[in-house]
Amino acid sequence: MAVDLSKPSTPSLPVELVIEIIQQAWGSPLTNKDRMHLFCSFCLVSRTWLSIFIRIALADVHITSPTFVSHYFYLLRERGLGDERDNDYQLVNAGATINRLCRSITFRIEEKSLKTLWLTSKPGWTNPDGSHEPAVAVRNFLSHLDDVGPTLPNLRKITLEYVDCSWGFDDLFEISRLYSFPSQIDHLEVKFTGIATPSKLFLFHYPQYHQALTLSYNASQSHIRRLSLSRAPTVVILALVEMCPELEDLEIIDPFTTLSRVALPSTLRTLRLHGTPSLVSGGQHDPWGLAGAMESEGGLFSAGASQRLVMYGEGKTEFLKKLCDRNNVSFVHEPPQSLLL
Predict the structure, then answer these.
(1) pLDDT value of position 307
(2) Could you tell me where the DSSP H helices lie in the chain?
(3) What residues pair up with 331 in beta bridges, in sequence order?
(4) Which of 268, 263, 27 is nearest to 159 (CA)?
(5) If you ran DSSP here, which 8-state letter would residue 150 be given?
(6) How far apart are CA 91 and CA 75, in angstroms?
(7) What band does 132 get if pLDDT is binned at 50, 70 and 90?
(8) Burial (0-12, 13-18, 19+ Cβ within 10 Å), 282
(9) Which residue from 20, 72, 79, 335 has the highest number of Cβ atoms inside 10 Å of its Cβ?
(10) Interatomic CA distance for residues 58 and 76, integer angstroms
């Protein structure tokens, strides 16, 4: 039965518990379809529930489709004088409030079946006409984000999550998805999830791009201070690190390669490593290849001052601690973190 939002209502649960439930639900790794269903359902529970939920959803925005891109830009528009409605989702001064709430924007680009990847004729295509709704949503939003940026004063983080999309590597660079970042964004997160061995898929399907990623992408995002990469192959790590010359904090989660070829910018202060590279056999003292990477000329931490390595996970760390001591790098060992990937 539909709820009459014009009448005040009181939740049967304490408000603090409602907030926790909504935050946990909205922060879960949902499909685009499930997230839109959740959004629509939560807006209809009660006025109190809507009031809490909409502020959480508009603080950590998830772009689920090109249609939602249009809806979100409609909410962000400047409201004229007169009778124009400015109370979307029961918010007072909705346009200004929605602009002010946004802290992060996440895009989830999904490929329902890896089987379709082998039928595509060009990188980044999943249908014969090249269309792919979530990827179109990314393109449409980021192409306008630079104009909208000044009106999103608290936006700091962009997340791109590719689910079962081996073509996501090429999609990042060849189609220039990342050119339109406004300067207030300082944290970029790129995640590849659901692929058994994405680096092998990428090299098999698009071998011509193995050496071309850093060459074909020449945009500089000097305002990015933190870069988080999950399950990325070396070519992607190299290209994105090169794209962020003022990087201060680099986080790498469960990569499919060692770091032997990665040179960090002189501005970097913290390197965070989670897990163990998936293509490396277990039982090694240095599965990340840090010894060769640190001690080679121009390699990891070659810049020197006040740099630290933070390792998350179980296992022996004596070798890594001694390695860091030899290279004047602070070493911190932390327990594994629970990451929603």
Answers:
(1) 87
(2) 15-26, 32-42, 47-59, 66-76, 94-101, 133-148, 168-174, 198-205, 213-216, 234-243, 290-295, 318-326
(3) 309
(4) 27
(5) G
(6) 11
(7) low
(8) exposed
(9) 72
(10) 11
Q: Choose among 255, 248, 107, 257: nearest CA to 189.
A: 107
Rounded to an integer, what distance in angstroms lies between the CA atom of residue 194 and that of residue 110?
Answer: 10
- Residue 339 exposed, middle or buried by CB count within 10 Å (0-12, 13-18, 19+): middle
Q: Chain-centre distance of CA 37, in angstroms?
A: 22
> What values do phi and psi take at 61, rounded to 5?
-80, 135
| DSSP assigned state of 43 | T
**Cβ atoms of residues 150 and 187 within 8 Å:** no
State how far the Cα of 254 lies from the Cα of 85, in Å rounded to an integer. Answer: 48
- Asked if residues 272 and 250 have their Cβ atoms less than 8 Å apart, the reply is yes
Is the separation of the CB atoms in 123 and 72 below 8 Å?
A: no
Least confident of 35-39, 44-48, 195-199: 195-199
Q: Render pLDDT for 72-121 as a digit per residue (tens, 0 to 9).
A: 988 888 776 665 778 889 898 888 899 999 999 998 888 763 344 433 43
The letter for the amino acid at 153 is P
User: In the prediction, which pLDDT does 235 show?
Assistant: 75
Q: Quick: pLDDT tens for 316-329.
A: 788 888 888 888 88
Helix (H, G, I), strand (E, B) or coil at 285: coil
Distance CA 289, CA 220 (A): 28
What are the two backbone dihedrals, phi and then psi, of residue 139, each rounded to the nearest 5 degrees? -60, -45
Q: Is the pLDDT of residue 215 over 80?
A: no
Read off the tokens for 2.
Answer: 């539909």
Over residues 228-234, the mean pLDDT reads 85
Tell me which amino acid residue 340 is.
L
Residue in 246, 265, 133 with CA at minimum distance from that of residue 185: 246
Q: Which residues pair with 201 in a beta bridge?
A: none
- The residue that leads in pLDDT, 50 or 12, is 50
Residue with tokens 């070396």: 234
Quickly state the pLDDT bin for 70 (edges 50, 70, 90): confident
Q: Which of 114, 138, 143 is nearest to 126 (CA)?
A: 114
